[in-house]
Every structure is written in C-alpha cells, then in structure tokens.
C-alpha cells in the first residue's frame, strides 16, 4: 500500500491507489470514511481507539475473533490470558529449539544452493525460510517436538498445502478489499472466487485443528509427569497453545473454536511475517556487502555463544534497519468511535478508519534523512532517543502492539546470525524495488527472494 508499495497494478486496484497518499479521505460505502495517515500516535497510543479497521472484518472467516481481529472486552481478556506465554523465561526456553532450527536452515540452504548452481538469478530462499519458520513455531509455540527433525512426506505435503492456502487467502482478502462489490457478503458468496476461498479455509482450519487435537492428546499423556511427590500439579511456564488448553481445562470461557481462532492467528503472524522479514533482511544485506561483512565480523568475534547473539549491538541495528525499509506488515488501521483532536488542531472524525502506512512512515525524511539509504547507524542509541517514538513501528505500537514482538526479534536474530555466519550473500533481485512486491497482507515478494549463497 502507499505510494511505493503498489505491486503490479490492475484496473480493480486503481481506485485504491488514488487514495494512497497521506491525508487522503476515502468515503466508505457502508458509512463513515477512511483516512490515510503517516502520524499514528494519537490513534495507536490510545486505550480507547483499539478497534481494528473494517478491512480486518474480511479476515474473520479465517481468523474468527482471535487476538488480531477481536475488539473490546474479548480482546482485553484474551490479551491478558496470552501474555504469560511470552514471558522472558519462556523465550529463554525457546532459544535452544530456535538454535536447532537455525542450524537446520543453514543445512537446507547449503543443499539447495548446491543444486541451484551459480548461474541465473540464484536460489529462491523464500519457500525454504517459510518452511523453517513454520516448523519453528510448531515446536516452540505449539509443543510439536516431532517437528525438530525433517517431517515425513505426508507432513511435507500438508505443509505445502498450508503455505499455498495462506498465500491465496491473504491475496483474496486484499483483492476483496479493493473490489467494493465484494464487500457485500451475499454477493461475495455467489462468486467462484469465494468457492476457492472456502476450500482454502478448510485447508487452513484442518491444519490447525489437527495440531490442537494432537497437543491435547500429548498433554493428557504428560499429566502424571506434571505432578510433584504429593500428587499436586506443578506450576510451570507454558508455551502458547498449552496456555489456551490449560485455561480451557480450568474452566475458562474458551471453546474449541476459540482456541483454533487464536492458533490460526498466531500461526499466521508467527511464521508468515517472520519468514518475510528474514527473506528481506538477507536480500538487503545481499545488496550492501560492507554492512554484511561488518556483521559477519561481529558474529565471528562473539564466537559460538548463542546466548550472546541477542545482545550484539550491530546485529540489533541491522535488523531494525531491515524492518524499517521492509516492514513485514506495511499498513495497519484503526477505527475511531469518537472525534480525535490532533496536536495541530485538526480533527479525525468519529466513525472513521485511519489507515497508517508503516512502509511510508518509515521513509518520512523528517525522521529518517535520505530515507532510501540503508544505514544501520540510524539506530545508534543517541539517534533512537532523539527520534519520535512513533516514527518507527514495525510491530505496531500502543496497547495493540504485537504480543509476539520479543519472540519474533529473538527468532530473527538467531536465524539471521546463523545464515551470515555461514554464507556470503548476494542479491539476485531486480534493482527496482517496486518490482519486488505484490499487494498482500504482508510485504510478500512478487516472485520470490533470489539470492546467491557462497560458503564463508
């Protein structure tokens, strides 16, 4: 979205692009209006305006009323329930599993790079990364320890179907958003487009329902081992899915469908956004050899101590700059239920959807001079402190910021470090950034992320 994230234009999308500049006001056929903004603090920081924009309603057939799409008291209750799943001690437990997956990623990339050879555009790393991040989520957040090793052929086929369905459903949600006649459910339900959509939803829901069912069975088998010598249940820190299942078992108002909706949400947000972010980070480093070499040197000096990776200052700055230029989620929106008076006296009216273009916000020259230049030192401590706190929001901000931010950052650092320690990376992508993206829920590559990898 925005002036630069336009992907490949089609006639159906032209009306959307006319309103992609900051300050534009777009009438909404169902009432109210949509506003485009590069100043999100008044909305994002508010504890009142925490409802998502109407476009998120198109996600509900897939994600139901999970944490991403729910509002009001339901959102507050679920957020409070799930927050302990992202406790720093839980994340420390995850790091060991993520290190295993980082090593697996290096092995998979090395094998694929040998097969791809040295010619042409290079190796498309996107499907390899996506498969790896999905398995990492399965092990860490869903408790599927059998995914530590290579999945069998049936599991691989199931994964492939899941990937394809996620891509099609994401594209379908965006396409529906830019074709107003499809906003009306009875009309949408008459289309062949909808029949494909329904089929993909069955694939996605079947995949996550199977995960939940298997984890329930695993937990029942482990119940005796979770008791102390007096027969009392031990207090333990639980990963994401276990938190939900335990709450259900303790009488919380959580149906099987409620749990599936939260799992669908986290499976999407926890693997798709992370895989996109890692692919773009490697592509950017593949264009900037000096930065890549400096990062490799920092990693070499840190040695084999994986626990030190999260504290490496240059790695931290590199990742932040990658997420500035290529935010996984390029836009977000919020709904206003009453007028908001901005600091300059302008009024955001009630019953409006405020679309915040993160991709463009991260390129605002007032906050990031020469914004297209790749410069990790923008995130030196003194520069971060001097910058507006809402100028950089790759994980959103305020009460509805990403609950899994710390998990995502830890995973990205471990995986990025593993790849740069092992390979020299060179981009095989076109020089024009506009040609790389497709219009989607995430900043998805239009054809893949092609890299040349040579061992260090």
TrEMBL record:
Cofactor(s) essential for the protein: heme
Membrane topology: Peripheral membrane protein
Pfam family, one: p450
GO molecular function terms listed in the Swiss-Prot or TrEMBL record: heme binding; iron ion binding; monooxygenase activity; oxidoreductase activity, acting on paired donors, with incorporation or reduction of molecular oxygen
Keywords in alphabetical order: Heme, Iron, Metal-binding, Monooxygenase, Oxidoreductase
Keyword Metal-binding: yes
GO cellular component labels: endoplasmic reticulum membrane
Positions annotated to bind heme: 402
Record keyword Heme present: yes
Main location: endoplasmic reticulum
Compartments reported by the entry: Endoplasmic reticulum membrane; Microsome membrane
Family that this chain belongs to: Belongs to the cytochrome P450 family.
Function: May be involved in the metabolism of insect hormones and in the breakdown of synthetic insecticides.
UniProt-recorded name of the protein: Cytochrome P450 4C1-like
Source organism (scientific name): Megalurothrips usitatus (bean blossom thrips)
